[in-house]
Amino acid sequence: IDAFGKGKQLTVKECEYLIGQHVTAALYGVVNVKKVLQRMVGNLLSLGKREGIDQSYQLLRDSLDLYLAMYPDQVQLLLLQARLYFHLGIWPEKSFCLVLKVLDILQHIQTLDPGQHGAVGYLVQHTLEHIERKKEEVGVEVKLRSDEKHRDVCYSIGLIMKHKRYGYNCVIYGWDPTCMMGHEWIRNMNVHSLPHGHHQPFYNVLVEDGSCRYAAQGAALARGQ
User: Fold this and answer.
1) Can you spell out the DSSP letters for 120-184?
2) pLDDT score at 75
3) Is the separation of the CB atoms in 78 and 68 below 8 Å?
4) pLDDT band at 109 (very low <50, low <70, confident <90, very high)
5) What range(s) does the Hemimethylated DNA-binding domain occupy (predicted)?
6) How far is CA 28 from CA 15, 19, 25, 31, in A?
7) 197 CB-side CA count, 13 A
């Protein structure tokens, strides 16, 4: 079956013409579901690498996540994932958990293949330098819920909350008066469909499974028990 020819069924001779070699028994075999998924995700990876536009970066990021879910120890793809995070500029002023993910990826690469020490060291160094530069540019900002400009912030750090839609329990460890994530994250998370969109308080929360998330006040969180 020619998957690129609208599912047309081919004879042996047509297959030989298509691939340019004699078809032997060794070329036949059963393909399991994982192999089919690997091929599909591989095609998505190729598309994501092809163009340097926002949509292809998102496709590349999603397909990398899928591929690494199946094959978590692929060093070259892990390096590509780390470089992609670096390129997209996903850093702690937007979400500290994501920069920790980049550093975790680099540490994993170093464990799998010590020969990648140079590339890993380069990315770690530039990641940390970028963080320091941002700290110097932004400076220390003290946010007080008592400020009039923060009057819409209902919850404080340390409160135990429950997500209305997904049901997980979490604790607040930070907040912003409005969503501080980039346009890509806002689009990917469909924030515009929420009541008040990104113009509402968002909270950094530590979830009971150990993950960190960024949740909207009105549509996501309620006081937990």
Assistant:
1) HHHHHHHHHHHHHHHHHHH------TTSGGGTT----TT-EEEETTT--EEEEEEEESS--S-HH
2) 82
3) yes
4) confident
5) 152-225
6) 11, 13, 5, 9
7) 6
Q: Which residues of 183-197 are buried (b: 16+ CB within 10 A; e: fewer)?
A: ebbeeeeebeebeee
Cβ contacts of residue 175 below 8 Å, gap of 6+? 143, 153, 155, 156, 157, 201, 202, 203, 204
**Distance separating the N- and C-terminal Cα atoms of the chain:** 57
Q: What is the pTM of this model?
A: 0.45
Residue type, 204: N
Which pLDDT tens digit goes with each residue over 61-93? 888 888 888 888 888 888 888 777 766 655 444
- Domains located in the chain, CATH noted: 72-140 (no CATH), 148-223 (2.30.30.390)
Q: Summarize pLDDT for 116-125 with one digit per residue, the tens.
A: 777 777 777 7
Residue whose token pair is 């400020």: 147
- Report the b/e string of 165-181 with b at 16+ CB within 10 A: eeebebbbeebbbebeb
- Of 179, 151, 145, 164, the closest CA to residue 223 belongs to 164
pLDDT of residue 205: 87
Backbone angles phi, psi at 9, to 5 degrees: -85, 130
pLDDT tens by residue, 155-212: 888 888 888 888 888 888 888 888 887 776 787 778 888 888 888 999 988 888 777 7
